[in-house]
Each structure stands twice: as structure tokens, then as C-alpha cells.
Amino acid sequence: MENNRLTFNLTKIFFLLVSIFLLLGLIKLTESGSSEITNRLNVFYHPALKKIDITNLEYIKSLEEKDIISIRACPAEYEPFSIILSANDSISNLSIKWNSFEGNNNLPGSIMDAFIIKGWFQAGISSKDIRDTSKIVFVQELLLKDDSLVKVDMSLRKNYLHINYENSQSEYIDVTSRKFEFPDSAKIFQAKHLKPFSIDSAAAKQLWFTIQVPENAAPGIYSNQIEIIKNDNTINSQQIELEVLPFKLDSSILRYGLYYHGELKDYQRKYHFIDRDEERLEMELTDLKNHGVLYPTIGQSKKYLNKHLQIRNKVGLPNDRLFSTDVFNIHKLFKSDSIQNQIKNDIENYKSIIKMQGYNELYVYGIDEAKGKLLIKQRDIWKEIRKNNAKIFVAVNSRAFNLVGDLLDAAVLHGELMPNQAKLYQSIGHEIYSYHNPQVGQENPEVYRRNYGLALWKAGYNGAMNYAYFKSYGNVWNDFDDPRKRYREETFVYPTEDGLISTIQWEGFREAVDDVKYLTTLLNRIEKLEKLGIDAAEFKYFVDSIDPNDDLDFLRNEIINNIIEIDKSF
Fold first, then answer.
1. Which CATH number fits domain 255-513: 1.10.150, 2.60.40, 3.20.20, 3.40.50?
2. What is the pTM assigned to this prediction?
3. Torsion on CA atoms 292, 297, 303, 305, rounded to nearest 10
4. pLDDT tens string 87-99
């Protein structure tokens, strides 16, 4: 009798414990009705623009688990944030969901988009070098909707890209081979929505979110919750708060360009960096504009120049000036017997086309990265170009000013920022832009945010014109197949059949532009204060104290706080 009572009590205790564990989420019923004990899925906060080694689990476990992730953004602004998921056991079939943003006035959940940051093997780099293909490094880079688009073999250090054929067949191809050939009939597709994904045992996965605040969003705090789902059950969640700021951003005080190779062509080589039809050209120009790049260069042949400019106008790019790399071939002009007539006629013909689309000021490209005698050799040609009411821009080094500075209207200066060079060019009414600091291609968002944002302003530059939006030396999906074995791919985006795949470095560049927009908004507020006769010394002191080497998120918040404080005066 006593034994039966003991057995009965133990049974009651067992079922009571099971019930408690079920409530705590420590035991999960599977579809087959059996139960399995699973470890808790951890959700860590990580600043989106900070580079991370996703394989360093000790570092990831040291990250903060935040009750609430706070985001501040202006109407019409794009703003990213990131979380990292980690678990000791492998977990498959994970998905995420969220609802509308709730506040005084709700905002639709569709203003937020989610991606998996895909790590893969790329050619190595030093601090500014883009040419070290002898090394292989594992880096976070791609913003994917489908984690399986790229598979990675960690032991072999290889990437495999999923491609499709017209006969509905598909396969994975090695995109780390130096003897790589992309199949002519192959197509790359990216999912429209985030697909279910897995986390391997003792591994982690980083998720990237981008919020696009509606232009008409009312100021205030909006809350939402990201739920991590497995088999229709929420196994963890992350609370977020969006603060829509009570002001809009002013246009950047700096001018942002990128070398852009896209041209309208009658034919398109597969995923080539030049060949574009009208749809893809419009898509890329829209992407440039959405990332704050309003002055991409143009190399379009005259056959489709007018149509190309029509598309730029449709997208909404400004037409106050045009940076063209295709007006002349200066090497050929060296051989001409009548450069004066040829330059005059070519500029008149080119301007007659661009004026139809509202462009008036034309910048003509010199010989790229010329030095010494080759720069001096161009002086007479540059003089003729300027006589015909066009201006000169070209990539140069720091020695160019003493040789051609008087003729170079917009110097695109190589390397680290040089405030003294900015003063030299601007002292004679000319402009200076930055490139190769670093060049496009480093999988590090913070370096682009820092060097092309507040640091650019602090150095006194007029803007940036980095190389390049999309340039490949082999196939852009393979960092190792340059036939000359010299370069890795220099791209902010990766093309698919029906769109573009962004990268963390491209999003970092957008944040650089936004940092300068916030600063510009503050500077304009200070100017307004002074015009009203209100003391602005405190705010000017803050601006003078800005150090671009400081934490950029902290600086952004301080700029925001100063803008809000000034607005109390109006």
C-alpha cells in the first residue's frame, strides 16, 4: 500500500515538472507527439555597422541581450539594426515575423525588411589593399533572403552558388575556383521574402533589419516585437522601439558620387558590369539614389545618351551637373592635328544632347590616375576643354595640384584624407573629392561609414567619388577569377536575374551619407539661429568638438539631441 502511494506521488511530481517545463519552453512537443529537450535560443544585440567574426562564439556569448532595441530615425530615412541568434544545438526551420508598429499612430509592419547576413570566403585584404587574392578569409557580406543561395564549405574554404537553368534544373557551382566559368544559360534568383533558415550546432547567425520610415510618419515612439518561430511556435522574441524624430533631414552638405559603369546596350552579357537594359539601369540608379549617391559618373555612348539621361531624370537624380567619362579619349586627341576644332565640336554635340534633359554643367574626365609628365601633357587639351565651357575632373594623387591644379576643377584624390589638399584646391575655387579610402570591396561597413562620412566633412572635402558601384574583373560572384590575377571584385552589390543583392559595406556607405545629412541639418539650424540673433555659441562649440574617430552612433545621437534642443527656440 505504501509503495503504491509512493509511486502515485512520484508520478504526480513527474507530470507537474513536465507541465512547468512546457510552460517555460524547455520541453517542446514535436509533431510526432514525442518530446525533446532543447536549449534556449539566445538573441543578442550587435551594432549593425560593426564588423564581426560570426565564428567567434566566445565573443558572441559575451554580447548583450537587450530587453528593448531602440532605433531613432527621421521621416523618409532608412535605418538598420542587427541581432545575432545563437544556440548550442542545431535548429532547423526557423522563421521570423512581426506585426505593425504600435504608437499613437500605428505604422505598417511592411516598413521593416529582414535579411540574413551571409558569411562566405573572399580574397584577403590589408588596410587599403584590394589586390591580395593570395589570402582567403571568411567574412560577413551578403544580405540574403534565402540563406541557401550560397552554401559554404568551411573545411575546404569554398563557396557554392545556387544557379538555375531554363529546363527547371538547378545546381550549385564553385565560385572560389580561379578557373571559373559561369554557364551561359545559368540564372541567379533571390527570394522576395525571408525564407526559413537553420542554425548549426555551436554556431550563430546574424540577422539584418532595415526600417524605411514613411515620409509622412508622425513623430513619436512605436513598438514592435520580432518573434523567432519554429514549427509555428514562438521560441524567443526581441522587443524593438522606433523613435520617429520630429524633424526631416536636410540634403547633404557634401556631394556624393560613385564611378558607375552601367550603359544602355543592344545586348547584355550575363551579369556584366557595363551592359544594361532600361529596366536594370533604372533599378540601379534608384538604388544609388536610395543610398544617397546623387552624382554617379556616366560613361554612356552617345547613341543612347539621351535615353539614359531620361531615366536619370525619372529616378529623380539632380541635373545641375554631369560627370562624364565618355566625352573624349584624350589619348587619341594627342594624335589629332586639329584638337581645337575637335574639342569644340565634340563638346557642342555632347552638350546639345544633355541640355535636352536639363543638364547645363558638364565635367569631362581626364586620363585616369595620370602622374607627372602625362598630367602636364594634358594641359593644352584641358585648356581647350575649359575654353568651351566644360570643366575637368579626374582621379589624381597629391602631387597633381602643383602640376595641373589651376586647370583641375574637381580633383578626385587618392588615398587617406588630406585636409591641406582640400585647402589648396578650394583656395582657387576648385573642388576635391575622395576615393580609395578604401576603394569599394572591403567587407567592413564601419570603415565606409567613418571615412566617407563625418571624417570627409572634417577634412574639408567637397564630397566623395569612390570606385566603383559595381566593377568585376572576372565574374562578380567570384573574388578569385581575375584572369590577370591582380584584383578582387570592387562592388557594393551583386546582380541577380531580377534584382540586386546588397552588402553590409553598401549599407555602411548609406549611413555615412546619413551622418552628414544629420550634421547638415544641425549646421542649417545654427545658421538660422544666428540670422534670428539668437546665441548659438553652445551649438557651434559642439560642432567644432566633433571627432570622427569617436563612436559614430554616439555622435549621431548627440547631433540629434542638439537639433531637438535648437528647435525649442523656434
1. 3.20.20
2. 0.93
3. 40
4. 989 999 999 999 9
